[in-house]
From TrEMBL:
Alpha-L-fucosidase is responsible for hydrolyzing the alpha-1,6-linked fucose joined to the reducing-end N-acetylglucosamine of the carbohydrate moieties of glycoproteins. Belongs to the glycosyl hydrolase 29 family. It comes from Paenibacillus nasutitermitis. This is alpha-L-fucosidase. The keyword Cell membrane does not apply. Pfam families: Alpha_L_fucos (PF01120). GO terms for cellular component: lysosome. The record marks C258 as: May be important for catalysis. It is an enzyme of class 3 (hydrolase). It comes from the Bacteria. Keywords: Glycosidase, Hydrolase, Signal. SMART domains: Alpha_L_fucos (SM00812).
Length: 424
């Protein structure tokens, strides 16, 4: 087992995490890019700083919701692109401790999630629209991108890097063991050594030897010999990669799709385009069937509460996970071809058949004739019979396959009926 495999072992077993985007942008409630998208002035943005009170922020409630949903790890935006810090950084005044909230909100998050046994991840944006030494004018997304007044302002990017490295050091020194460092993100020439990424990653691993790091400092995690800063896992955003993620030799590498519940990461009061629990469950199954994880995002409101819509989805997800989690945790890709009625996940000799579309009649398992020792409904343990339907040989080629007949009471639940097959 190489070092990356050893570090990511728990992560690939746990499969499902909670992503949380929360910050000053939750007040205007038009998504986390509001300052950049609207080219908002610092002066205007400071009005949110002056009123941010986090009055209903209770991460113990978030942690309980995550736990009940079956989420085994979490990632919180400690600083997004706007540069505002939820933690008590000694290196800036632009932090939660100086708002009406008046406290270190990262500390409370770490304590609350750890208390529920949930692994703790920290999101940190290497992009920073607030720091005076981060390039603004001409940068494609920066609020000052076409602000003539910012055009000739000299910047000292090394000063920014010292700041950024210093904040990462604070985050990894002051809160005990941190399980995931989630950087966001490299683009164009802002990538790799532009961030002094090798130095950064060495510092991180010297403080937190077991931490896992995403692949967004740049580099090529899929290469034969990835850069030291290329990270431990690949992080596709808002997409489940069709063939999973493999390295240049075709071997699966750790990956995690980050997907938000509606169409924004940060709170957006008008965005009611939430995915259903059924979509979320099937997406999770899709990820696991390709050896991947799902990091599911919620955007709590300005006061710190998750939306009803999010909580409803998490509740339904949790109920399904409670009964069917055995087909997710510790599971991965099966060598069997994708079945026409759904997906497979597998853990050793336990094969999990996720029946999305049953239609009528028995379910057919290509290639499994004589190979199934026992079949049961995962949700309640009901034994299922393997039987050849009447006249089946005469109207289809069933060589090598097995049939399982479901009775009326065993009809699929709306989300995904899981059949556990114990193989010989
Ligand atoms: O935090 C969430 C998003 O806010 C953040 N990542 C997730 C987890 C994210 N924001 N944007 N993106 C990821 C991709 C955006 C890319 C673009 Fe651009 C922004 C394309 C054009 C503007 C920056 C400038 C990158 C390319 C040019």
């Amino acid at each position: 087992m190489n070092a990356r495999e050893a570090r990511t072992h728990w992560f690939l077993r746990d499969r499902l995490g909670m992503f949380i985007h929360w910050g000053l942008y939750s007040i205007p409630a038009r998504g986390e890019w509001v300052r950049g998208n609207e080219r908002m002035s610092k002066e205007h943005y400071m009005t949110y700083f002056d009123e941010f009170d986090a009055s209903r922020y209770d991460p113990k409630v978030w942690a309980k919701a995550a736990k009940a949903a079956g989420q085994k790890y979490a990632v919180l935006t400690t600083k997004h692109h706007d540069g505002f810090c939820l933690f008590d950084s000694k290196l800036t005044d632009f932090k939660a401790t100086n708002t009406p909230a008046g406290r270190d909100l990262v500390r409370e998050y770490v304590d609350a999630f750890r208390a529920e046994g949930i692994a703790v991840g920290l999101y940190y944006s290497v992009i920073d629209w607030d720091h005076e030494d981060y390039p603004g004018y001409g940068d494609k997304a920066h609020p000052d991108r076409d602000n003539e007044a910012a055009k000739d302002k000299p910047i000292d990017f090394d000063r920014y890097l010292t700041y950024m490295h210093g904040q990462v050091k604070e985050l990894l020194t002051n809160y005990g063991q941190i399980d995931i460092m989630w950087f966001d993100f490299s683009y164009d020439n802002m990538t790799g050594e532009k961030w002094k990424a090798t130095e950064l990653v060495r510092m991180i691993r010297s403080i937190q030897p077991n931490i896992i790091i995403d692949n967004r400092l740049g580099g090529n995690i899929r290469a034969e010999e990835p850069e030291e800063y290329a990270g431990d896992f690949f992080s596709p955003e808002q997409i489940i990669p069709p063939g999973g993620i493999v390295d240049v030799n075709g071997h699966s590498i750790p990956w995690e799709a980050c997907i938000t519940l509606n169409d924004n990461w940060g709170y957006c009061s008008e965005d009611k385009n939430y995915k259903s629990a059924k979509q979320v469950i099937r997406s999770l199954v899709e990820c696991v069937s390709k050896n991947g994880n799902l990091l599911l995002n919620v955007g709590p409101d300005a006061k710190g509460e998750m939306t009803c819509e999010s909580l409803n989805v998490l509740n339904e997800l949790g109920e399904w996970m409670r009964l069917n989690g055995d087909s997710i945790y510790g599971c991965g890709h099966s060598q069997l071809a994708k079945p026409e009625w759904g997906r497979y996940t597998q853990k050793g000799n336990k094969l999990y058949a996720h029946v999305f579309d049953r239609g009528i009649g028995p379910i057919y398992f290509q290639g499994l004739k004589g190979k199934i020792k026992k079949a049961r409904l995962l949700r309640d343990g009901t034994e299922l019979k393997i039987e050849v339907p009447w006249m089946a040989e005469e109207y289809s080629d069933i060589s090598g396959g097995a049939f399982i007949t479901l009775k009326g009471a065993e009809l699929p639940d709306e989300m995904d009926t899981v059949i556990e097959l114990e193989l010989f």
